[in-house]
């Protein structure tokens, strides 16, 4: 404050102006781009991943690229695979090699007539120290499960796989447990030795997206195999070339592969024709239509094709449909097999109603 005198005894107090405030310092700003969600892999990326996995598995399985590719297509189509073949043709090695290449956890279930459902699913157990009952997860709680010689398990144990294969979860008591994704069951059975075996019910076979056999190797491939295995089994040194998250993204990408209306009609023609064929007691279910559609998308993505073709569907039908059909056991059609019938339907002109 400042005092000013205007007379002998008068004074006026005038307020002083406030001191100038210092100018605020300008802070440097860093401009950052917005964080966008990662784009899902395209079909071309699926092809690159598939090529890496196939080449990795071929270090273990010699000369079976077609079978390896089909097994990988089943994985990308989120399905399950049934392998019917004689012992010793690398059925187990195929499952282990694909699981290891994809970086997925792997468990094997060896089926026997005395195998119980709890041996597959797990069971609740009482812990005396804590006084609590906890569920101990069985071998089915894995991303890649090999069910070896599934037809040697009892029907009760076989049925324990149905919910897991169809719904991706397991119910024990009043609690349902979601299985970790990706999840795939590969089951094997020996078509030669049938003593002590139980035939798979139709509901069980319908859960498998595809059925195939591996077959014996050629003479040249068998020679390469013997030489390669001389110093040890290559499965022990197999390293992953993908991750489970990448497999999930590729599964999502395969769903975006276009299927033209005429190709979709061709799928329905094949499936519906099996239901009215005179040589068949049981035709393919709607699950077969969905399976053929998804397998076509997955195989097209693996090949790097931009859409699903009718020719590709015709080739895949031989692996997707026959195990779902029942051939008549009497009359003029009794000596035919389901594979021949599917082949005729694929080649038959026209469309089913």
Q: Give the CATH topology of the largest domain.
A: Rossmann fold
Helix and strand string, N-terminal first? EEHHEHEHEEEHHEEEHEHHHEHHEH
User: What is the spatial order of strands in the main beta sheet?
Assistant: 4-7-10-3-11
Total helices: the number is 13
Tell me the number of strands: 13
Which regions are unreliable across 5 or more consecutive residues at pLDDT < 50?
A: 2-12
By CATH's scheme, which homologous superfamily of the largest domain applies?
Answer: P-loop containing nucleotide triphosphate hydrolases
* Shape type: globular
Average pLDDT rating: 86
Rg is 32 Å
Tell me the β content. Answer: 15-25%
Largest sheet: 5 strands, parallel
Distance between the termini: 103 Å
| CATH class type of the largest domain | Alpha Beta
CATH architecture of the largest domain: 3-Layer(aba) Sandwich
Helix content: 25-40%
Q: Which structural category fits the helices and strands?
A: alpha/beta
Characterise the protein shown here.
With 353 residues, this protein is of the alpha/beta class. The chain folds into 2 domains: 40-229, P-loop containing nucleotide triphosphate hydrolases (Rossmann fold); 255-353, Helicase, Ruva Protein, domain 3 (Orthogonal Bundle). Helices cover 38% and strands 16% of the residues. It contains 13 helices and 13 strands. It has helices at residues 43-57, 65-76, 91-101, 117-121, 155-159, 162-167, 202-205, 219-228, 244-254, 261-275, 286-303, 310-320, 338-347; strands at 2-5, 11-14, 81-84, 106-110, 122-127, 132-137, 144-148, 169-172, 175-178, 184-189, 210-212, 280-282, 326-327. A 5-stranded parallel sheet has the order 4-7-10-3-11, covered by helices on one side. A hairpin with a 5-residue loop joins β1 (2-5) and β2 (11-14). The longest helix is centred in the last third of the chain and has 18 residues, at 286-303. It is globular, with a radius of gyration of 32 Å.
């Amino acid at each position: 404050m400042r005092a000013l005198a205007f007379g002998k005894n008068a004074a006026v107090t005038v307020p002083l102006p406030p001191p100038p405030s210092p100018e605020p310092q300008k802070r440097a700003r860093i401009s950052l781009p917005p964080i966008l969600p990662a784009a899902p892999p395209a079909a071309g990326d699926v092809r690159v991943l598939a090529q890496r996995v196939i080449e990795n598995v071929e270090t273990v399985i010699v000369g079976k690229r077609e079978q390896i590719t089909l097994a990988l297509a089943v994985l990308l189509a989120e399905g399950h695979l049934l392998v019917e073949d004689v012992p010793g043709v690398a059925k187990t090695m195929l499952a282990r090699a694909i699981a290891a290449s994809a970086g997925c956890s792997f468990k094997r279930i060896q089926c026997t007539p005395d195998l119980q459902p709890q041996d597959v699913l797990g069971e609740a157990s009482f812990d005396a120290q804590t006084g609590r009952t906890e569920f101990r997860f069985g071998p089915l709680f894995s991303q890649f499960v090999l069910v070896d010689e599934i037809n040697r398990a009892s029907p009760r144990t076989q049925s324990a796989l149905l919910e897991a294969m169809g719904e991706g979860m397991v119910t024990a008591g009043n609690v349902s447990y979601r299985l970790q994704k990706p999840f795939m069951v590969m089951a094997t059975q020996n078509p030669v030795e049938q003593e002590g075996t139980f035939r798979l019910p139709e509901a069980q076979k319908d859960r498998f997206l595809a059925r195939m056999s591996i077959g014996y190797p050629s003479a040249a491939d068998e020679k390469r195999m013997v030489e390669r295995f001389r110093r040890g089994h290559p499965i022990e040194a197999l390293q992953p070339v993908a991750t489970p998250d990448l497999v999930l993204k590729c599964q999502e990408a395969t769903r975006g592969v276009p299927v033209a209306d005429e190709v979709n009609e061709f799928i329905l023609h094949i499936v519906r024709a099996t239901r009215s064929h005179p040589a068949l007691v049981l035709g393919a279910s709607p699950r077969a239509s969905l399976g053929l559609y998804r397998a076509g998308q997955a195989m097209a993505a693996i090949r790097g094709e931009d859409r699903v073709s009718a020719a590709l569907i015709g080739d895949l039908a031989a692996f997707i449909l026959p195990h779902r059909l029942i051939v008549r056991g009497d009359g003029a059609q009794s000596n035919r097999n389901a594979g021949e019938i599917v082949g005729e339907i694929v080649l038959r002109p026209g469309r089913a109603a």
